[in-house]
Design goal:
The complex is a heterodimer of chains A (about 230) and B (about 300). Chain A has about 230 residues and is α+β, with helices and mostly antiparallel strands. Chain A is built from 7 helices and 11 strands. Helices cover about 20% and strands about 20% of the residues of chain A. In chain B, helix 4 crosses helix 5. The chains are: A alpha+beta (about 230), B mainly alpha (about 300).
């Protein structure tokens, strides 16, 4: 199995619900808590597994706002695991999820340096590195109804921009979506072979703009006369 | 990259320590080691011990960078894949070798085969450790300014250079003049200058990466609208560091001046005095700290692209 996410950049509305829902689930999850520093103060900061940024693609009028959620890409060639000196970071053979053993991490930040996606964040309170677990404490939980055995971010997304599944199965929902919509991984040039795929925004119809012509001299005189008479 | 002072101090100090240990071993091979009646009066014993102290100081400083140092012992476990782990293992392996080297000089009556073997081992482990320290940075594909063989070369050269100056000062303190050591240091000065200049040319190349390649969006132009953050998050603090190009240029010049030019002039002083070598060491140390600071500040992590910054 190669579990991962498909993120639809066409439908993501940038509501940050995935970010909040992720924090809510994972702060009491296996690698919780996700500590915050100065949460109600001047420079609030804290651990998040998922963050959403917004970009503008193209120039007006052919532009589009693209909301861009990013979390761990569960890379096939995970450099964060290779560089880890303690063996705290590991990639599971069974499903490809990259995890951090909180009991082994020494908080050297080296894995965060190796990650091109900024997916790993140091928890200042526990002194250990934290990252997206793909809700490993949820997707295998048999006490949950089967339709709920999905990552928290996927469950909560109001615009269905997030999809979860097995990329090793060519007929899975995520494999089909990637195939049909030309999904691509981010920063493939680094050779990390990220599992998560991003579906590019669909081509939008061009917006036609009514350009008002400069009125001719005769029209200008007419307009002026009309205005003058009504006065 | 955020320049963590503990890491900067670690690389500079342990670099100096391993340079000193390397040259101590070399001196034995050159047949310049003498067995003294009073073993503690032997410059090589002092240089070996000083090298060891510098290495230990550096390693202790590096643990200050850890957020969870109680697990630091685990860092020796993944030497098969991680350069950070390899650095730790080589550093650990160097301790018994240094002790063997020093004890041979103290307790054996003559320079024996064992002393020569320990000297060779000392030189090998010193270069290996310096190489691993450089590879910690050079193996990261995410930071273009670091992902180059020039990085470990620089680490080795600058480490050997500062160690060479230190050993020279110790020898001069014991009133032993060694012309060949001066020549070696001069050669190292030239090599360090060349490799650092080549490095600055290398990182001056315009980057092929942009916010477009990072997001994979096909539009003609991609701009950041909003980071989605109200304050700086971990990635922004760790990877974002702003410094003006003017300041960088000034610091580069100043560091080259302190590492190469001033110590070089100190070395040319005749007769070579302990004080002139001491000032060379101090200048070289400060220059190397500055160079290491720049090494971090000038390195741009690719995650910056997602925040609308350069990488």
């Amino acid at each position: 199995m190669r579990l991962g996410l498909v993120i639809d950049l066409d439908t993501c509305v940038g509501c940050h619900a995935c970010t909040v829902s992720c924090k809510e689930w994972n702060t009491s999850g296996t690698t919780g808590s996700l500590s915050d520093q100065n949460p109600y103060d001047k420079d609030p900061t804290g651990v998040f597994f998922n963050r959403v940024r917004s970009y503008e693609a193209g120039d007006y009028p052919h532009n589009k706002t693209v909301n861009f959620p990013m979390s761990c890409m569960q890379c096939e060639e995970a450099a964060c695991v290779t560089v880890c000196p303690t063996g705290a970071s590991y990639k599971r053979k069974s499903d490809g999820i990259v995890l951090i053993d909180q009991d082994k991490c020494m908080g050297c930040n080296y894995c965060a340096w190796a990650c091109p996606y900024g997916s790993r964040e140091l928890d200042r309170e526990s002194g250990t590195m934290k990252k997206c677990t793909l809700c490993v404490d949820r997707i295998y939980d048999e006490t949950l109804p089967e339709e709920d055995r999905q990552p928290s971010c996927v469950m909560t997304c109001p615009s269905s921009a997030r999809h979860f599944g097995d990329f090793d199965d060519p007929n899975s929902h995520v494999s089909k979506l990637t195939r049909e919509r030309n999904g691509n991984g981010l920063m493939n040039e680094l050779g990390y072979n990220p599992t998560n795929q991003y579906l590019p925004p669909r081509l939008a119809n061009n917006i036609t703009i009514n350009k008002k012509k400069q009125p001719s001299l005769a029209e200008q005189v007419k307009d002026w006369a009309n205005e003058f008479i009504t006065r | 990259m955020h320049p963590a002072f503990s890491v900067i101090f670690f690389t500079v100090t342990s670099g100096m320590g391993y340079g000193l240990l390397f040259f101590s071993g070399l001196l034995v091979l050159l047949g310049r080691a003498e067995v003294m009646v009073e073993p503690l009066n032997n410059p090589l014993v002092v240089s070996g011990a000083l090298g060891l102290i510098l290495v230990i100081l550096g390693l202790l400083s590096s643990t200050l960078h850890l957020a969870n140092p109680k697990n630091a012992w685990r860092a020796f476990l993944r030497f098969r894949s991680s350069w950070l782990s390899r650095e730790g293992v080589f550093a650990l392996l160097s301790f018994p070798i240094v002790l063997l080297f020093i004890s041979n000089l103290i307790w054996l009556d003559d320079i024996t085969l064992l002393t020569v073997i320990s000297a060779i081992m000392l030189m090998i482990i010193s270069v290996l450790t310096l190489y691993s320290t450089g590879m910690i940075y050079a193996c990261l594909k995410t930071i273009r300014a670091w992902n180059s063989p020039l990085v470990p070369i620089n680490y080795i050269l600058l480490g050997l250079l500062s160690g060479g100056f230190s050993l020279h000062a110790i020898l001069v303190y014991w009133e032993q003049q060694l012309g060949s050591l001066s020549m070696l240091i001069m050669a190292l000065l030239t090599l360090s200058f060349i490799s650092k200049t080549v490095y600055y040319y290398f990182i001056g190349k315009p980057s092929e990466l942009s916010i477009k390649t990072a997001t994979g969006l096909s539009a003609r132009k991609v701009r950041l609208l909003h980071t989605g953050e109200s304050a700086k998050n971990f990635s922004m603090k760790e990877f974002g560091f702003d410094i003006s190009e003017k300041k960088v240029l000034l610091l580069r010049l100043l560091s080259v001046l302190l590492i190469v030019v001033v110590p070089g002039l100190c070395l040319l002083a005749y007769p070579l005095s302990f004080s002139s070598l001491l000032s060379a060491i101090i200048c070289n140390f400060l220059g190397t700290v500055m160079e290491r600071w720049l090494f971090f500040v000038e390195a741009k992590h690719v995650v910056n692209l997602y925040y609308g910054r350069e990488a």
